[in-house]
């Protein structure tokens, strides 16, 4: 009985890992750590499924099988249901992770080609997320900032609010190719110089 209980706990822990790990893999670096993925985990749904399994096990356990006592029948059925659920979640997680990997590979190729093209055009385009600035005074300041960073061979493009792990990974590949070019183009310490000039514009 004790062994069945411990085995059931182990299966439930496996269910938790099978639910969290694919989500962490898919959304990294949106989920920048496993703790972050843990915090974003849908606990209500997870607990609800476990409770449903417990209730179903309790009902099915009333069907007597040989001389096995009810508590043991209940645990055996609950373990079986959890294992079936574990297999289903694991397969689903693997398929979703493979889709995310395929998406990243396609985006990575796109951004690597984009990096080569932007380097050739001497204008590195860094993508940003969020809503564009709408206030007139702020908009005027940002136009001055944009004009300044263009002298360093950089501009920014807002692509909306949708952020995904594969997209951020592909953008990292773009950055890895373009940053060495900017270092050569603008010279040592260019980031600090640019940031100081941006600060001056925004403080005036």
Describe the structure in your own words.
The structure is a single chain. With 204 residues, this protein is mainly alpha-helical. The protein has 7 helices and 2 strands. It has helices at 2-27, 34-39, 43-60, 70-121, 136-150, 165-186, 190-203, and strands at 124-128, 154-158. Strands 1-2 form a two-stranded parallel sheet. α5 links the parallel β1 and β2. The protein is elongated, with a radius of gyration of 26 Å. 12% of the residues are buried. The mean pLDDT is 85.
Write a brief caption for the model.
The chain is mainly alpha-helical and 204 residues long. It is built from 7 helices and 2 strands; from the N terminus they run ααααβαβαα. It has helices at 2-27, 34-39, 43-60, 70-121, 136-150, 165-186, 190-203, and strands at 124-128, 154-158.
Taking all Cα atoms into account, the compactness measure Rg is 26 Å
Give the fraction of residues assigned to helices.
Answer: over 70%
Shape: elongated
Mean pLDDT: 85
Beta-strand proportion: under 5%
What is the CA–CA distance across the termini? Answer: 74 Å
Quantity of strands, as a count: 2
Q: Helix segment count?
A: 7
Low-confidence stretches: none
Summarize the SSE layout with pairings.
Blueprint: H1 2-27, H2 34-39, H3 43-60, H4 70-121, E1 124-128, H5 136-150, E2 154-158, H6 165-186, H7 190-203
Parallel strand pairs: 1-2
Short descriptors:
204 residues, mainly alpha, 7 helices, 5% strand
């Amino acid at each position: 009985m004790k062994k069945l209980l411990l085995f059931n706990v182990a299966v439930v822990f496996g269910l938790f890992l099978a639910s969290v790990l694919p989500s962490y893999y898919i959304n990294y670096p949106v989920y920048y750590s496993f703790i972050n993925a843990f915090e974003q985990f849908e606990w209500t749904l997870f607990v609800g499924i476990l409770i449903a399994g417990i209730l179903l096990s309790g009902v099915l356990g009333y069907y007597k099988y040989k001389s096995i006592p009810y508590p043991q029948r209940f645990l055996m059925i609950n373990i079986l249901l959890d294992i079936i659920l574990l297999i289903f979640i694991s397969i689903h997680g693997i398929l979703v992770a493979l889709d995310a990997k395929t998406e990243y590979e396609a985006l990575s190729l796109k951004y690597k080609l984009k990096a080569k093209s932007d380097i050739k055009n001497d204008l590195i385009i860094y993508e940003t997320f969020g809503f564009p600035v709408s206030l007139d005074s702020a908009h005027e300041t940002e136009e001055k900032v944009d004009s300044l960073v263009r002298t360093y061979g950089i501009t920014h493009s807002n692509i909306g609010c949708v952020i995904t792990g594969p997209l951020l990974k592909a953008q990292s590949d773009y950055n890895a190719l373009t940053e060495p070019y900017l270092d050569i183009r603008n010279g040592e310490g260019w980031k600090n110089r640019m940031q100081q000039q941006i600060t001056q514009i925004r403080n005036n």
